[in-house]
Amino acid sequence: MKPIRMVDLQLQYQKIKKEINESITEVLESTAFIKGPQVSKFEQELGKYLGVKHVIACANGTDALMIAMMALDLKPGDEVITPTFTFIATVETIAFLGIKPVLADVDPDSFNIDCSKLKKLVSSKTKAIIPVHLFGQCANMSELLEFSKKHNLYIIEDTAQANGSDFIFNNGTRQKAGTIGHIGCTSFFPSKNLGCFGDGGAMFTNDDALNEKLRCIANHGMKTRYYHDILGVNSRLDTIQAAILNVKLKYLDSYNLSRQRAAQFYDSALKETDKIRTPFCSTFSSHIYHQYTIQITGDKRDDLKNHLEKSEIPCMIYYPVPLHLQKAFSYLGYKKGDFPVSELLAGQVLSLPMHTELDNEQLNYITMKVKKFFS
Q1: What's the whole-model pTM score?
Q2: How confident is the model at residue 192, as a pLDDT?
Q3: CATH of the domain at 256
């Protein structure tokens, strides 16, 4: 059996090595390392894949979130609602701009923002909602769209973990994650479903004016070289990373399908195991399993983690401390007990290995070791 990795980028690379190396060599020989033609090609191809009018590449997913809020003219004193059970970047960027993060609990099934809690959180200062499409499936965008229209709020989708996931509307129509709100933001961190070989990110929008503003902010506030219309930042996707993403984008659907097949194996093997809850799949979203995250009841999560690691099976806790209990956000005044679902999940979730290269032998070994722990 091959060694089990949390994410096996090495084997994935070997399968597309020739294409990747040729794409990188093309950039090296052109020496167009910044804003080379591969960047605009990637923006166009990703836009076609997503069905969105504009894709604006940038340096990373964190920058994408920050630039999106800048483009919407969010200012210090404004408030933005976002979930407490997520990676820090979502809330970090809000706070960095002097905007107040207003945290929300999550749905106990999907782990995405609980729309039923939003009414109590909105105020006259609320300007936007940032739903996070966590672990590979969409938040309830139908409810979020209705709520945002009622309260005149922007929606910035954080789709870093759901590249390629579909949201399914009540009439059966589908739309890709990140293309439904005013701006979508994503990351191409290497471990993502669509990942480069370093840092990278992008923003999506169907709004022509927002497209121009996002591009301007990401380029030092310039539309014309050396003429700075507004304050901006330096956030670019370098050409080599774009060249890599141009290759990997062609395989994104097959990568997501491989993850779904691995998830089906896990589901089938673990569904009858006492004290394990396998991932919930919403009826309104496809799930592309950026993570395969189970819940362990009965205070056995950490013991199971140790058991698996001793068996050379990597596993991770995403996330051990909700953001409202992080020291960096103590100034917000939240306390333990404020968001019970997120706090419960933080003590129960465990993510098993999930990537495109998992084979049945590895999956059988992983699930056998999990079941043995509970036998």
Answers
A1: 0.97
A2: 98
A3: 3.90.1150.10
